[in-house]
Amino acid sequence: MLKGSSAMTIRPQDLGDPSFRSDLGLEYNYLAGAMANGIASVELVAAMARTGMLGFFGAAGLSLSRVEDAIHRLKSEVPNKPFGFNLIHSPNEPRHEMAIAELYMREEIRLVEASAYLDLTLPLILYRLHGIYRDAKGNVVTPNRVIGKVSRIEVATKFFSPAPERFVHELVQLGKLTPEQAKLASLVPVAQDVTAEADSGGHTDNRPAITLVPTIIALRDRLQAQYNYSQPLRVGAAGGISTPASVAAAFIMGAAYVVSGSINQSCVESGSCPTVRKMLAESGQADVAMAPAADMFEMGVKVQVLKRGTMFPMRAQKLYETYREYASIELIPAPEKAQLEKTIFRTSLEEIWEQTKEFFIKRDPEQVTRADKDPKHKMALVFRWYLGQSSRWANSGESTRVVDYQIWCGPAMGAFNEWVRGSFLEKPENRKAGIVALNLLHGASQLMQFRISSLLGLAKQGSPSPVPVEFEKLKEQLGYAGVSA
Known about the structure:
The chain is of the alpha/beta class. It has helices spanning 18-24, 42-50, 64-77, 94-106, 122-129, 153-160, 165-173, 179-185, 209-227, 244-252, 262-265, 274-281, 312-325, 334-345, 349-363, 365-373, 375-396, 412-420, 433-455, 471-478, and strands spanning 2-3, 7-8, 30-32, 54-57, 84-88, 111-115, 133-134, 140-141, 145-150, 193-197, 202-203, 234-238, 258-260, 288-292, 302-306. Helix 13 packs antiparallel against helix 17 (375-396).
């Protein structure tokens, strides 16, 4: 808003689309994305909720019981405050994906971040359409909300479109939807909100935000005009969100909200261990690499991880190359097999298979049945043991496996470290997610205020360089006594 005729004030609360804040019950258009294996922890999600923002619990990779426990804890710790959970595409474990979706429906989790989807799935559509109805005023109401996270225009198109008829028909046949609900399904998108995920940690296509965000926004406009939804579509920005300048740039490009990721892992509330937080706090923008993903190993999908201080990227790549070259464990040459067992697995591959089999008998017995018939699949499951354990070692702080830590990380982490150098946020023990987020928003609002004032001829030459400020001073500068962190 304008103060008098010569100064413009932009508050952090003013950034982004006000309808997004209103719909989700937020004070700020700032989200903390879901980091798998509980790295986006109950503590992190609760901290975001208390700060007037939104966090998604990192349910990917966790058992049904672990996710259920997190649901109960969050309902207890932040009642009546918004939070969400992750629903990740699981092409190798469709039953587990369905079990997670059904858990969310039973527990009335009304918001999910749908990530890593290569295509839409039945569990996702079931969750979205569960309980859809038309209210007394004739409006179509969908109790369950999906925020899709995408890097490709073809996937964004599917999220912004109504649910595919083949899935709707199947759900009617299964008795999960009534014929009337099936008709209503054609009037709403799978996701009203889609996050354009640029170069980031974890699953990423390494797209530049400066090209991806405008492209998805243009798609939004086309599909909104095509379907004429009663509630307009919105686009958020993720990937590279780590400095006031990147936050300001995202909002200037037209993002309704921003989503942070890598930087939250270095905060005290994350599910990572202190050693990992220290490694992240010391990293630079070039200290990242692409490595095979555990959940989509056979498909050749990769995730972005930290390479400084760990050999995980190289070892994971070695496993993928071995998987591509040989048809079974038995066909791996003895010297090569011995080297894998010595340096990566630290035990025999036969022992790893026994551990893997025991895990899948409890989680998804069909995987074991398939492995007994398909030696190539058995090898994939064994190799995925290392990929899965490496992230758990990082979370638990397994001291004998530091060189094998899998730490999902994008170049945003290095940019953040440069910004906070010399400030109280340089030390990882001082990094609280809410304070980090408030500083980013506060700095972004200062930058935007200056740029707009400059264009209007109301500001001097030069540019402000927002620096992190501690909580009490930040509250004073924000002029907002209700904020907590």
